[in-house]
Amino acid sequence: MTDDILTTPDLIRFGWEEWVALPDLGLPALRAKVDTGARTSALHAFDIETFGSANAPRVRFTIHPIPGREDLVIACSAPIVDRRNVVSSNGESESRYVIGSTLRVGGDDWPIEITLTNRDRMNSRMLLGREALKDHITIVATDRFCQPELSYDVYSSLEVRRSAPKRALRVAVLSREDNYSTRRLVDEGEERGHTVEVIDTTRCYMAINAMAPEVHYDGKRLPRYDAVIPRIGATVTSYGTAVIRQFETIGTFCVNGSEGITASRDKLHAHQLMAQHRIGMPNTAFASSPKDTDSLMRLVGTAPMIVKLLESTQGKGVVLAETKKAAQSVIDAFRGLRANFLVQDFVKEAAGEDVRCLVVGGKVVAAMKRTGADGDFRSNLHQGGTAKVVRITREERDIAIRAARAFKLNLAGVDLLRSETGPKVLEVNSSPGFEGIEEASKKNIAGMLYDHIEERVRPAPVRKRKLLG
């Protein structure tokens, strides 16, 4: 009679331990212990945190899917189905979050509910309770792995990264302003199912120690974010980059790192960095002593020339000196204010126009030509300039990508001047605005940034070595 049951075509035979997959969570291979004495299934999880709205709460957690391999960490997130008190086999009660997921065994898939708990000491990262076992499953308590065997080797495959499901992320936007760019980042992220929180950079404070570096905000430790999008204002660059360094220390993916933002904000440093990477730019000179004024001007060329404060943004602190005498007067005035500045060749043929190339993840995703207001050599939109979409050349595309790469920026606005000798990089902006470029190009720039973030926070394949099981 038993043999007849086991040969029934629709019957699935399980041993007391089986290989399973949870594709919704990006877990292609797990060893699960089958326990009909337990009602609810359980999955190994740690760093469990809730996020999202009260109406649609979510939980994020991490897992070491391979026992003994703490170098492999998979981050997961899922909607919360319930919260239950679960009594373990030793009689201890624990309140656990309950999530739903697809269970895949062999060629069969079906939905199950899973509780989250730390099973770090267990060889089986998952326990399959009786609620997860379909009616046509029979348990053979003396056998193991009756279903097709899987391998932990899949975690060292690039295919794992490519096939990882898009999960809900917890994202922080570091911004002090409620402007178009910040609102777009929030709206686009939430539309994709992510939780996006706007954090005022200056209200962050940090616990700096070797064991557990933390970022605090309004009296509480900030949670672990999947990604941080810096929108650091020029007036708080120093403190803002310190906060980003703290997130980098924790291991959070920051769209733009502290090193690149710092370099882009210091115009002297920025031009030295571009020179180091052989990136074309207008002739530029810098000096500290007033005795060097004439020599400084000769290094740049003849008037007209640009005198620019090192910390200038949005076209402020940038002066066009049309004659040598005017340039000397401006330089003397800046020195009188003890301001740091540089002198730069004025590219006449640009005629008050520049090209803004928006680089995301090492690709130019949009470009616009900016034209200054009547009588103004500056093309910044904040100074009344106008913008329209423009087709850029391969040379302009290449130089924009090289400039963003030199500053190690995943998001950059690279401003180019079209000169007779080819494109010249005027500036690399580490917090480019979205409004002008989205309006001119009709492209979803915020969406392209989230595409890059979602790609970067997927689990990376681990180096292959002898695996257990």
From TrEMBL:
In the C-terminal section; belongs to the RimK family. Its cofactor is Mn(2+); Mg(2+). InterPro entries: Asp_endopeptidase, ATP-grasp, ATP-grasp_RimK-type, ATP_grasp_subdomain_1, Peptidase_aspartic_dom_sf, Rimk_N, Rp_bS6_RimK/Lys_biosynth_LsyX. One of its GO terms (molecular function) is metal ion binding. Keywords: ATP-binding, Ligase, Magnesium, Manganese, Metal-binding, Nucleotide-binding, Protein biosynthesis. It comes from Puniceibacterium sediminis. This is Probable alpha-L-glutamate ligase. One of its GO terms (biological process) is translation. The lineage of its organism: Bacteria, Pseudomonadati, Pseudomonadota, Alphaproteobacteria, Rhodobacterales. One of its GO terms (cellular component) is cytoplasm. It comes from the Bacteria. Residues 271-454 form the ATP-grasp domain. The keyword Magnesium applies.
